[in-house]
Amino acid sequence: MTAGPNYRVLDAEPGVADNGPVARVRQILASARRQGQGALDESTGKSILEAFGIDVPASAVAATPEEARDRAARLTPPFAVKVLSTQPLHKSDLGGVRLNLDGPEAVHDAATGIADSWPSDAPPIEGFLVEEMAPAGQEVVIGGFLDPQFGPMVMVGLGGVFVEVFADVTFRVCPITRGDAAAMLGELKAQPLLNGVRGRRPVDMSALIDALLAIGGEGGLLMELGEEIAELDINPLIVGPERAVAVDARFVLTGECVAGGLESPPLPDSFAPLFAPKTIAVAGVSGSGQGPGNRFIRNLRSLDFEGDIYPIHPSATELEGLPVYRSLAEAPKPIDYAYIAVPKAGVADMLRTAAGRVRFAQIMTSGFGESGARGVSQDDLLAAARAGGVRILGPNSLGTYSPRGRMTFTETHRAHADPGRVGIISQSGGIGVDFVRTGQARGLRYSAVVTIGNSADLGPNDLLEHFLADPDTAVIGMYLEDIGDGRRFVSLLRAARGRKPVVLLKGGRSAQGQKAVMSHTGALAGDMRVWLAVAAQTGCILVETIEELLDVLLMFQSITPSDTRVSRRLALFGNGGGASVVATDCLVGHGFDLAEPSEQTRARLHALELPDGASAGNPIDFPANAFNRSNGRVAEGVLRALSGDAATDVILLHLNMPVLMSYRESQIVPNIVDAAIAQRAATEGDAPHLVMVFRSDGSEEVEALRREQRQRAVAAGIPVFESFAMAATALAALARFEAFQAQRRADRSLPS
Predict the structure, then answer these.
(1) CB atoms within 10 A of CB 671
(2) Percent residues over pLDDT 70 in the chain
(3) Four-CA torsion 605, 594, 639, 701, nearest 10 degrees
(4) In this structure, how many other beta carbons lie within 10 angstroms of the beta carbon of residue 260?
(5) pLDDT averaged over every residue in the chain
(6) For 137, which of 132, 238, 378, 666 could close a Cys bridge (C-beta 3.0–4.6 Å)?
(7) At what angle do helices 546-558 and 724-747 cross, to 10 degrees?
(8) What distance in Å separates the CA atoms of residue 418 and residue 227, rounded to the nearest whole number?
(9) pTM for the complete prediction?
(10) How many other CB atoms sit within 10 Å of the CB of residue 277?
């Protein structure tokens, strides 16, 4: 719309070249910052919105109530009158807004009333904004803020004065695509209001999406100016059947124009020396045999490491049966990997004198403070590594576990150390131990587990980029406390387009919420919402516990996500009618449905002449005695019938092991597992996924059989879980990933 009289259009400053709207907006922001303003008044904010293509009402600025009356005479009623201020404030809460005024005199009286009743402790009134009322429609809020890790982010939700009460909002990292914008709106509980309910006309969704893209899309306001804007609110944006109009705008500025992103150092030419080293130096080996380096050497030998090991020590001649060298530079061959666990004071000198002969050094030593701290800082450590030509992991890092390199930082069983296709990045060494040992017990097989500690040099993004490209890694797990360069993290995952599942446990979410509260957006933005936005945009799977992370990794290790469907329809098969009822409730609560067997499937099941007491519906329930009649072999026919049903996405086979094992002379459980393994081997194309739940009473006898049969099943590509809840959580992660892939395929057909 055409701006009203005295509207603050974006004119270039005198003597400054006019290089387009973005340059003119930057001039306005710079001018506001020079004058010490922490925020823009609404009129200036709306002029910026208009420069980026967002519709705003015709308006005028006045200094006094009398001037407001004169300005209103040149506009079309009804009118709104609002206080102007360059300080962040909630105008409505302070009585600074009057609506539905029918003429210039009403505008004068409203402005006078605002001035007379303005609280004495509120920021001073700097003027009045008189504007034409926008047509009625649905109130929406669009916001933006500058996240310290992910940079500019955009928000959309149900708007109005109760936006923080209902908190029906969703976020994305900028820039967003048209598909992202549509997905954001689809996540809102208020979406039916946008689509039209109870006789209301649907809103102009295209105009609403265009407004979102104008704020958060490629070339949008936040992408062009996000480093200068701490918070942005358009509340409300009134969206009607034919247009979307911004009737309020609040801009909170950053304290200074901050840098747009972090420049990452180049990746090493190859990570092969880290994961398959031929030469390893170990610093921190003791003559007593109790040093961390001694344990590391013993761990290497337990996995039959075949390369050369060089203990580093200032005075010893032989340790752990190996010749000792005084420094990294004195080792007879260049060192692929150095494990450093010496006292803090000696680490920097050891790195500085490496003389370019060490590819990677993993520093177990902790206690390095930030720059300016007493003693050797982390910056000092990094400088020493650069001088010595070393790339480092850590400090405060326990090490790397690499089955193909026969290298481990923790005790592990040789029988469980076969190379697999799960790559792990952990900022915690202790949790890294959990991943290796607990994960192996559950059947996970790793391409590598890397603990990165403080990430002074190589960090989570570097390892993520490697694992995304690594042909030996099919699924990636991460434990993160601080991602650092969040924009690079999102960029890597978006570029991968869901090629590999990435499962993320984010530590410290509750402690890192946004502190900005000068706007609705700032109050609603929190660390958890930010990470949910990242997950929605990138397809990474957020989990809440270590156990859940391991379960989800096991699911993706065993099952290739379908590229033709989202796995939501399940067939339940097992012993125990009550257990099936409980399982159904649990699965439905996670968004699953019980599949309706086809007539052909019913006929196949009927042809099996199922024993009395067995149910051929869904769930398919077998009492233990019904399984016992065939010594469990009836499972072969049932699984074969279910696997051929196109209406079934997942078969969940559950066994109450203590009950089945009460038949002492039978082999029910092993025979059922045999049937499952055979069916898994015969699976072709897009047949239903097969998942198992082994329920135990915790007794030694049952647990021993469960471990044995789980190992067999997992080795054959069947994920096995200990409870329905654990299986449901992992299946839900699989379905979310399949849904993300399906959405990405659909987005390719949308215009940008």
Answers:
(1) 18
(2) 92
(3) -120
(4) 11
(5) 90
(6) 238
(7) 60
(8) 48
(9) 0.89
(10) 26
